[in-house]
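User: Design a sequence. Structure:
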């Protein structure tokens, strides 16, 4: 199909936090047209009403795909459906935007990537931080700090109410460090531009409300070929502490770069979707010393005026999706990055379960 002034018809699958935001993006961006909304529960009705109503609603993905015959499918369901839905959509001739993680196994992610290649369709994975100008700046500044780098990041969420329900549902198939860590592993790989060679991780199961095999707190460590190291931790649940829940920090021989989210890191905001991407300020510290071993350069603050909220970040993701389709962009490297970050996250999961360090294959 040639896309000029013709809108791209999108089937929206999943109406939680991300699906709702992507639906709003499709509703407001020129070039898209929603042809159906899918969810198993009542969320599709709520989203439809928020968008002004009138969109066809479905409870079954496969029925919706057959009935609407879309040009593209947006998948924001729980991870255990990602592979099956994405492969079916691609085999049906649709482009696919899919929330991270790409699948609930490395093999599944590879099958989705292969299905996209075979179908000749675009596959965009929702790594939202790649569309955030402040995170792009954070990565750029980190690369000026020399090697090796020490990267410290976390996102602990003191979740309750509906958010705890979402987290419990997610933990039926994935651990927090697999679901969340893919973002930050991706960032670390961009910062170092080096190959990760080994991982180790620990985890703790702090509630009986999740499967016996899973854990709701995890911390991972990655060692890179260039000597860089990084850690990331994620905890979900009403028992999680909000002290130091938001750390985004990197330092090397030449100094340090830190995201300082003054508002987003305040107590009571750890499970707020908007606060997860908010940067507000970037602090740059230089290690240069004078003859008295005192700092030769003052710390600098980078306050970027372009600070998109969660909805605007989703809008930017979808504008990129549209651009990738219209301009036939090569997404091979981005897809490989998505599969690799998932491979590293699952290696961390293996380390939690076995208590052993895991070596990563080259």
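Assistant: Done.
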């Amino acid at each position: 199909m040639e896309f000029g002034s013709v809108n791209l018809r999108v089937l929206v699958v999943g109406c939680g936090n991300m699906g709702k935001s992507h639906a709003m993006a499709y509703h407001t961006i020129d070039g898209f047209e929603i042809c159906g909304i899918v969810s198993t529960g009542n969320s599709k009705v709520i989203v439809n009403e928020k968008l002004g109503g009138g969109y066809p609603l479905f409870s079954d993905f496969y029925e919706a795909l057959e009935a609407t015959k879309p040009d593209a499918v947006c998948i924001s369901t729980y991870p255990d459906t990602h592979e099956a839905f994405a492969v079916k959509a691609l085999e049906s001739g649709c482009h696919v935007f899919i929330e991270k993680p790409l699948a609930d196994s490395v093999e599944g992610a590879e099958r989705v990537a292969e299905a996209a290649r075979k179908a000749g369709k675009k596959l965009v994975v929702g790594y939202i931080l790649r569309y955030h100008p402040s995170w792009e700046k954070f990565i750029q500044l980190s690369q000026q700090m020399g090697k090796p780098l020490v990267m410290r990041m976390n996102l602990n969420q003191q979740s309750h109410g509906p958010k705890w329900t979402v987290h419990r549902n997610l933990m039926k198939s994935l651990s927090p460090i697999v679901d969340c860590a893919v973002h930050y592993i991706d960032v670390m790989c961009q910062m170092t531009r080096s190959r990760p060679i080994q991982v180790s991780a620990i985890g703790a199961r702090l509630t009986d409300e999740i499967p016996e095999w899973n854990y709701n707190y995890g911390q991972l460590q990655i060692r890179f070929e260039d000597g860089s190291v990084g850690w990331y931790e994620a905890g979900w649940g009403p028992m999680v502490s909000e002290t130091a829940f938001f750390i985004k920090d990197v330092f090397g021989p030449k100094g340090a770069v830190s995201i300082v989210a003054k508002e987003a890191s305040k107590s009571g905001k750890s499970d707020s979707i908007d606060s997860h991407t908010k940067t507000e300020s970037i602090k740059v510290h230089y290690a240069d010393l004078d003859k008295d071993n005192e700092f030769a350069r003052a710390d600098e603050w980078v306050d970027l005026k372009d600070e998109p909220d969660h909805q605007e970040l989703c809008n930017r993701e979808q504008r990129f999706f549209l651009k990738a389709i219209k301009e036939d962009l090569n997404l091979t490297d981005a897809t490989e990055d998505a599969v690799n970050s998932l491979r590293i996250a699952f290696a961390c999961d293996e380390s939690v379960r076995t208590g052993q360090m895991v070596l990563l294959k080259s």
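The first helix runs from residue 17 to 28. The mean pLDDT is 93.
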